[in-house]
Amino acid sequence: MASDNRPRLGTVRLRDARADDAGPLTRLLLASRAAAMPYLPRVHSDEATLGWMTHVVLPETDVWVAELHEEGDGVEIVGFVSVDGEELEQLYLSPGAQRRGIGTLLLAKAREHSPGGLALYAFQRNAGARAFYERHGFTAVEFNDGSRNEEGEPDVRYRWTASG
Question: Could you tell me how many helices (H) and strands (E) the chain has, helices first?
C-alpha cells in the first residue's frame, strides 16, 4: 500500500506560518484573548492588530501554525506560536481548541527551536495560561505591577530551561 504525507483527517499538523496567515492569526488572537481574558482593555483596533501581525510578528519572529484537518470542513487554523530567540512571544489557541494537546504541540515546537530555554510573560489573572506553563515546567521568576505592558495588567515572568 502506498503511503503519502497528507495528514489524516481529525489530526493537527504544524507548519511554518506564511504572510497570508496574518488575517486568520489576527482573528484567532483576538478571539482567544476575548474568551480567556475578557477583563483586558482593548488597546488597539482590529486593523492595528492586523498591521502588527503583518509587519512585526510574521516577518520578525519565528511563527508556527497548528492546522486541524477535518473531513468535510477542510483545514482550520486552531493555534499558533511565535518565538524570538529564547522569548516565547505569543501562544494562542482558538477558544474551542483548548485541552486537546494543541498547545502542548506548539510549545514543543518552540522548545525544539530554542532548546537552551524559553522565557515569557503571562498576565497574573490568566490562571489557565499560568497553569499550562507551570504544568510544562516553567517557573515564575518575577511578578510585575502592570507598568511594563500596554494593558496596565499585572503580569508574571516565566522561565523554562532544558536542565530544569
Answer: 5, 7
